[in-house]
Each structure stands twice: as structure tokens, then as C-alpha cells.
Amino acid sequence: MTSTSSKPHDLQALDTLTGGAFTAPTSGERAARIRDWLAGNPAPEQMQEVFKELSGRDKGAARLLREKLDELKRAKGQEAIAAEWAQKAEALLGQSKLNIADALAWQRDAAKAGAPLSREPLAGLKARLAERVKGIEDLQHRAQVHREAAVLLAQRFEVLSTKGWQDAQAAEESLRADVTHWQQQAAEITADANWTSLDAKFAPQLDASKSQLLVVSDSFHSALAQAVAAAADAAAPLPPVPVWADELRAARGEVVAPKAAAPARPAAPKVDPSVRAAAQDAVQAALAKLEQETAEGHGKASAGAAAALRAVLKEHGKMVDAPLEARVHAALVAAGELEGWQRWSADKVREDLVAKAEGLLKRPEGQALGGRKMQETLRALRDQWKQADQGGVPNHALWKRFDEACNEAHKVVEAWLEKVRADAAEHRAHRVALIEEVKAWAAEHAGATDLKAHNRALHQFADRWRDAGHVGEKVFAELQPHWNEAFGAARAPFETAQKASVERRQAMIAEAAELGAQPMLRIDAVKALQQRWQAEAQGVPLDRRHEQKLWDAFRAPIDEAFNRKTAEREKASAAMSEHDRYVLDASKALDAANATGDAQKIRAAVARLEGALRGEAPPPAPAPAPKAEQPAASSDGPAVGATEIEAPGQAAAEFGESAEQAPSPSDAEASPGTHTAAATEAPADLVAPADGADASARSDGEAHDAGEAAAVEAPVAAPKPAPKPVVAMRGDDRPSSKKGEPAPAARGAGGRFGDRRDGGRPGAGGPGRPGDRNDRGAPRGDARGDRSGPGGPGGPGGRFGDRPPRFEDRGPRLGDAAFRAQREALERADMQLRKLAAQAHGEALTQVLGAWEQRDASRLPSVQELGRAVSPAVRTGWSQAIGTSPSAAAGDAAEALLRLEMAAEVPTPAEQLDARRALQLKLLTKRGDPAPAQTWGQDAGKVLAAAHDAASARRLQNALKALLRK
């Protein structure tokens, strides 16, 4: 009865204690109130009583109590375990000789027992043990290195014993110091606190190295002392070192016995290659197994593989080569380290993983991980935890912390996944709407004529589909066929127009090929075809690459035709005339003169080149004189561009002859034979080609040929003069060139107003002067040399003596090669002349200063050397000033120097600036006096009349350098 009556009272008290957990209407509220109550850290007895009553009513809320009770139980057990293992760690640290295996076993066994190694005091003890182990390992390493150092020192003694005793004596002190230092370091190693914890093998090894080193050192020093004594006293015994003894014998003059040959080493017994190969294969198989287990981190398996490899080595170790043996030892060392340290490092790896997991949500502002990155990081951390659990004992406390941190960080991944799903649904709806929009647009623009706008709209639809957002692979595979169908229907009219446009362009390409193959290229047809192509390209756009290929195919035959035409034109213009050849020869001669560095030769070559450019220089070779019986030139005349070669002496006379006046009618009648002969031998001028467009020129040429034929019928009475050069020109189509009509009379002789003053008088072949284009068949008045008589054209009464030559001042037009050659040659000549002038100017100025310094007028340069700026009178004044002793006052010389600097516009030294300003003010008051630029020659004479000093010479040189160039 008591228990029955007290139970409601207990439930009410427990309900009050837990904040209404028993009277809460729902399980969720009960769990929340239990959780709040547990946050206050109630007593374990109360929690046990509440759990006992609540476990039968709500197992969900009771689970929270059970977990809390289990945690307290584990904590109470861990405290006892931590105290136990802390005591063991203190005992290990208190030992004077610590075994590394015991320290590693303590950490392994404590983790296996569930001791909280991550909390104090076990965390501090674990760190102290790790430091002690590290100190022992470092001391072992130092002991091994010190042994190697002893071996190296012994080797130094041995090497010195193979050299001369004097070299050994020179290195004795350094060796003695090194041995002493080695002994000190060995004493430090043995005095270390961890020396007793080292393996028992290290102490005897170090002692053996020390004793061996001391024996070698003492032997070396005693032998060296004996060698020194033997060198000083010939009666002293020789040292036991053979090299030193032989050296001392040679120094004493004794005969040194030759060294006996070393006995041959017995050959090692040969091993059957098949046996050696089998041994190598067995060792390699065991080694591969050990390396695989070590790389995978399997501690137990690696220990077994290492034992198997050692067993194989015992059997086949003598037949293993050096590289394989080195691999075997490295693998055994790695396996031993893995076996001892794998379990010890498992908790350290787990602690690092826990720190990384807890730090995922504690990143700095602005560096928080996104959803995808957080997901990948969590997956990688959990994989690493699984790998750590494979080699060590599980740690439940660390796993709970790690799992809670990962679950908390996974909330970011869940939020990101929810957002991704919402975005995918939105993107799918957007793509479906875009497909419907494309279908409606295709139906609306089925007959569109603006293909460019149509293509632009298609590109915009494609860009919108590409930028519509990410969807899953299944959704994309579902929507892509619908999009292809709708987009293909919208693009169909445009593709049809493109096919038709390509066909039309192929037809235009064929038409361009026909135009390019024609011998005469029709420019108008080419332009019209290109305009059609441009209109087609602007109307129907194609893919850029396809359109470029079609355009290249269309342009190729037309370009080929134009290139062919250009090549023909260049081939016609490439023929070099005689005038171009002579200009090229003159340019080469000018380059040769430039190479000599002689200014006179360069100027002469420049003059010859300029004469050649004006057409005044004769061609290089004369032509043979034609026979009198040869008929006159054909009526068609020479080919276009043909020239006739004449003697060099006739060129100048030819240019002057063209300006002479034609003979009078009385002269023509007085010497008909002469005129006839001249007309017979004079070559006909060029006429227009037969297929030219100038028909009047051809008719005039025919009339001109008829007049020539009439003139040839006259008897030959005088010797034939030298042939006249033929110059290519068009037929004259002026009215006066008609051979059947009389030429209008000249002014002053009954001519009309406006007629040419140089119009010729009528002759046998028509009006005009000899040599003119409209007087091809007229008889010549007389011989070329007879032109200075009283009645001749060249006499005082002649009217055309001042007529310019046939060519202009610039001469005939040059080809490209000749023009470039003469231009470059003249530029190089000008540069060379400037250089020579500068050199001559500098030498002349140096000579002036030297003559002033030596007071020797004979060393003064001549007027030609000084240049046009110095007149003979000025040079005479300079000579008189230099030839006499210094007579000018210092003030006059200083003022003259200032005037020279003002005339030359060169700077004045800083200490003379005030004097220059004063002189400028003085000159402003004397406006009637000549300026310094007008009297610089006399001012220079005043300076030269004064005494020479370096500062004045430098100022004079700067002034004259500028004045002599003016």
C-alpha cells in the first residue's frame, strides 16, 4: 500500500524535477524538456530514477537519458583508465634507460584500452614520451655520424701516408686539431642523458672507433717525427712508411728498389647464370610483395612479408647484385618503421581529421565553402577516416566528435542541394517555354525575305538555349530532341536559301573562270560580276569558313588574269634602254669614287652622273655607218621604244642640232644633192602602231613616207652624214604635218597672227625645220659642221640659236632600277662628301690652334683648307698675328673672345657671363659699329695675337668650329 500510494507522489516530483516531461502532451515536447533538463547537468541518481520511470512510457525521450548515462559511465571509466596509464607513463619517463619499443607499446596499449589520449594528463605525457623518443633517435643518429667521421679521419691519415712526408708535416696540425675536436664531440655524446637509452651496440662501436682513430693518429705522428729526424740526420733510422722511406733514400742518394708487382687475386668461382637468375627472381618477388604491403599501410602483412624476404636473403644473399641489395635494405627499413609507428600515428591522423571537420564551419569571413566544395571535402574526410581505421584500434570518442562535425557541416550541402533542385526545375520550365517560342516564331516567319535578320534571330535563340541554365542529364536528354526538332523547322527556310545561294555562287565561279581564261581581260565584265557576288553575299549569309572558300575560288581566276597582265606589263617595262644603262654605269662609277675617299673624284663622278641624267652623256659604243646603196628606212619605221646607237662625239651635236633653224629655200635649191643624201640616210621617225587608236597619226605617217620616197629619187651628190638617233614618239597629227599642204608662214614673213615663231620654211618634203617630227623627208641644208657661217642658222642672224635642247633639264624618264641606283649613289656621295668636309674642317681647325701655340705662321692652313668663310685678307691677318710675338693686351683678347662667342652663338664659361652681358649692353649703345658676326675674322686675329693659354684655346676652338661652317 505504501508503494502504491507513494508512486503518484514520485511521478509528480519527477515531473516537477524534469520541467513537466511526464505531463507533456506529445513525444517531441517530452524529448525537448528532457534535453533542457539534461543541459543543467543533473545528478546521476536523479537521471537513473527518471530513466527508470520514463523508459516504460516514452522510449524516444528515454534514449536521451540512456545516452547521457552511458557517457557518464564511460567518462568515469576513462578517468580510472587515464589515471592508470598516466602512472605507467610516469614510470617510463622516470627510467634512466628508456626503451623505444616500450614507449610505443604504451601509446598503442592505452589507445586500445580506450584511454583519453587527447585530454590531459595523457596528452602531455604522450608529448613528453614523443620528445624523449625523438631525443634517443637523434642521439643514435649522432653516434652513427660520429663513427663515420672517425673512419674519414683515419682515411685522411692513410692518404697522407701515400704522399710525401713534407705534405704530411704541413697537414699534421690540422689533423691533430680535428682528432681533438672529434674526441670532444664523442665525450658530449656519451655524456648525454639519453646515452643509456641507446641500443647496447652503439657504445662498443663508438669506443672501437675512438681506439682505432687514436692508434692511427699516434702511429702517424710517431712515423712523421721519425721522418723529420731522418731528414735532419742521415744516420737516423728511416720511418716505417714506405713512401716516406723511399723519398728519404732518394734524398740521401741511395738507390730505391723497384716495387714488386702485387700478387694476382684468385678469381672468384663462377656461378651458373641460371642459378643466379633464379636467385634474383626469388628475391625480387619477395621484395615486390613487401613494397606493396608497405605502400598500402598494412602493418601485420608487412611484418610477414619482411620475414619472408629475410628468409630468402639468407638463402640467396650472396648472388644478389648491389642495386637489388640496396632496394632490399630500404624496403626492410620502411617496413620496420611502418610496423612500429602505424598504430601510434593512427590517433594523430584521427585528431587531424577531427580538427579539419570542425574547422569547416569556422572559416574566416568571405572564405566559406560552397555546397559542392563542402560535399567533396566531407566525402574526402570520411574516406581518410576509413583508411585510418584499417591500421589501428578504433577510437569512439574521436569518432563521435568527427561525426558530429561532419553532420553539422552537411547542413550546408543539404541547403545547396535544395537550391540546385529548385534551380533545375526553373531551368526546365524555361527551356520548355523557349521550345514553344521557337515553334511559334518558325510558323510566323516561314516566308521571311530578310535572311540576315532570320539568321540573327536563329543565333539569338541558340544563345538563349545555351544560357538557359543547368539541368540534369536525364532532363537534358529528354528536352534536347524537342529542341532539335523545333530549331530545325525554324532553320529550314534559311538552309534552303543557302543552298540556292551556293548554287548561284558556283555559277558565278564558273563565269569568273571563263573571264579569266580569255586573252583580253574585260574589266567591265569583271566589275559587274564582282558586284553580283557582293549583292549575293549581302543577301544570303553563309558560314564564315564556307563563304571564305567560295570567295577564294571565285577570286582565284580573276587574280590570275590580273597577275598575268601585270607580269606582261612588267616584262615590257623590264627592258632597259641605253640611257638607263649609261645611268647605271655612271652610278657604279660614283660608288667606286666614294670608295676611294677622294673628294675631287667624287665630285667629278657626280657631275658625270648628273650629265647622264640630263641625257647629255653619249652612249658607250658607236654604231657602224650604213652603206649608201641601202634603201631608206621602211615606211613603218622602227619598233616602239627603239633607239639608234651613235658615236659619242655626235650626242652633244645632236641635241644642239635639233634646235637649229631649217635651211632657206635658196640653200635647198643650191645643193639638192646634199639634201637628197641627207633625206636618204635620215631614218624615219616612229609612227603610231598599226592597231593603234589614232588613225590620223597613221595617215600622216603614210603621207610622210610618200614625201620621203620622192626625196630619194634625187641624185646623190654629197657624202652621207652620221645617222641621226631615232627617238620614239607618236605621229604628228597637227595640220602643218600634212605633206601636201604648205605650212603657214612664220611671223614677220607674212604669217598669220598666233602662228609658231619657230615654224620652219617650206622644203622639199613639206614645211618645218630639219629634224622636226613633221619634216621627216625634207633635205638637210648642209653638213653638220657648217653651222657658223653668216647665213647659217647658227650665225649671228640665226633665230633659233637660243632654243633649249631636245630633252628637258631632268633628262629622259628612267626605269625603276636606274632611278633607284642613281638616287642611292647620289645619297652615298653626299654623305661621303659631308664626312670628308667635316674631317678637313677638324684638321684645319687643329692646325690653326697648333700654329698659334707654336707661334709658327707656316703651319697655318691655306685659304682653301680653311673654307669659303675665311677670305685671303682674314687669313693674312691671322698669319701676321701668329708670326709676331704676343702683342695684344689681355683685355682686348678677352673682349675678342666674347665677340667670337656671340657671333658663333656658343655658350660662354660661367665666370665670363657677367663680362658677356656687359659687352652686350655696350654694343647696344654703339648701334653704328659692325656686329660681331661681321668682324669675327678680325676678332680671331686679336685672339691669335695674344699669348696662348689652354682656356682661351678651348673657347676659340668652340667658336671657330661653328663660324668656319657658315
What does the model show?
The protein is mainly α. It is 66% helix and 0% strand. Helix 26 (816-854) runs antiparallel to helix 32 (950-963). The chain is extended, with a radius of gyration of 60 Å.
Q: What is the 3D form? A: extended
Taking all Cα atoms into account, the compactness measure Rg is: 60 Å
Oligomer: single chain
- Uncertain segments: 1-6, 621-723, 726-808
Could you give the distance between the termini? 145 Å
Question: Which bin fits the share of residues in helices?
Answer: 55-70%
The total count of strands amounts to 0
Beta-strand content bin: under 5%
- What's the number of helices? 32
Q: What is the makeup of the main sheet? A: none
Give the mean pLDDT.
Answer: 74
Global structural class: mainly alpha
Entry keywords:
966 residues, mainly alpha, extended
Provide a quick synopsis of the model.
The chain has 966 residues and is mainly α.
Sequence-ordered SSE layout with sheet pairings:
Blueprint: H1 2-17, H2 27-39, H3 44-54, H4 59-94, H5 100-113, H6 122-161, H7 165-170, H8 172-191, H9 202-232, H10 242-252, H11 273-296, H12 299-316, H13 322-358, H14 371-391, H15 396-444, H16 451-466, H17 473-517, H18 523-539, H19 544-574, H20 578-596, H21 599-613, H22 650-657, H23 665-670, H24 672-681, H25 695-712, H26 816-854, H27 863-866, H28 872-883, H29 890-904, H30 913-925, H31 936-945, H32 950-963
Helix pairs in contact: 2-4, 3-4, 4-5, 4-6, 5-13, 6-8, 6-9, 8-9, 11-12, 11-13, 12-13, 13-14, 13-15, 14-15, 15-17, 16-17, 17-18, 17-19, 20-21, 20-26, 21-26, 26-32, 28-31, 29-31, 29-32
